[in-house]
């Protein structure tokens, strides 16, 4: 018999200019019956209140890269987001503990990339994968991306709990609300909470068959000149076409003089997080991923 889910956290505003999650938390705080279920508690949280007030991604540094276990224990780290991460870890965690406050964390994000409704998973949690499969079953348009990211560890908000993932939706400009993706995200949250209710009641059957996912392979930077300045832009062939295939010879970038720069890899991959505005500072223009299938029976949270 599996352990029941007792506490679920819905987090918005990890990035203060991603309004979908912020306003969904506002809505749920005003109408908590929308996220209440009988068998577990739902907790609502704005992660980065100061950045939200200023409609900025962050104040000093990216909060969604601050949850490495060693960093959380480092008393010499003291910028605004580093301190905020430690406070969130006290509220939701502590990370890595069997006594963490939350059993599952879903972190709500938007992207300027045209990724539709996406689930981003950076964990091997069987429960997280089963929940993602359930959401895919409810909405076949959902994409599932296994993110290994731009760091060596799992430093994300949802990693505080044993189970969790991010919902990433786009394309949404920074500091903007977009109704279709607002309501699409809300619907995914409702399905997710229903999944936990069924899971706790023993009503959820482990599906057999295959789940299509995208596995992160590598991050690709913009071509740059000798001074480190961007020398080429994402090619119109790819722009707004997230999850599209990229094969050898396909154009990835176009230089300022119109010269095309093609993909030279031998392996067929798929592009996503294409031209994400927030990733310019991180030094990459897109992520390339491999499409693969997983056997759902391998992700039985009752095992």
Overall structural domain count = 2
Gap from first CA to last CA: 8 Å
Order of helices and strands: EHEHHHEEHEEHEEEEEEE
The pLDDT mean sits at 93
> What strand order characterises the main sheet?
2-1-3-6-4-5-7-13-12-9
Report the structural category.
alpha/beta
CATH class of the largest domain: Alpha Beta
CATH architecture of the largest domain: 3-Layer(aba) Sandwich
From the 3D structure, determine the CATH topology of the largest domain: Aminopeptidase
Radius of gyration: 19 Å
Poorly predicted runs are none
Number of helices: 6
Helices, strands, pairings?
Layout lengths: L6 E6 L6 H12 L10 E6 L2 H6 L14 H5 L6 H13 L11 E7 L5 E6 L4 H13 L4 E4 L16 E8 L8 H23 L8 E11 L11 E3 L9 E3 L4 E5 L4 E3 L6 E4 L13 E10 L8
Parallel strand pairs: 1-2, 1-3, 3-6, 4-5, 5-7
Antiparallel strand pairs: 4-6, 7-13, 8-10, 9-12, 10-11, 12-13
Helix pairs in contact: 5-6
Describe this structure in words.
This protein has two domains: 205 residues, Zn peptidases (Aminopeptidase); 70 residues, N-terminal domain of TfIIb (Single Sheet). 24% of the residues lie in helices and 25% in strands. The chain contains six helices and 13 strands. The strands form two sheets. A ten-stranded mixed beta sheet has the order 2-1-3-6-4-5-7-13-12-9. Strands 8-10-11 form a three-stranded antiparallel beta sheet, with no helix packed on it. Strand 10 and strand 11 form a beta hairpin. Helix 5 crosses helix 6.
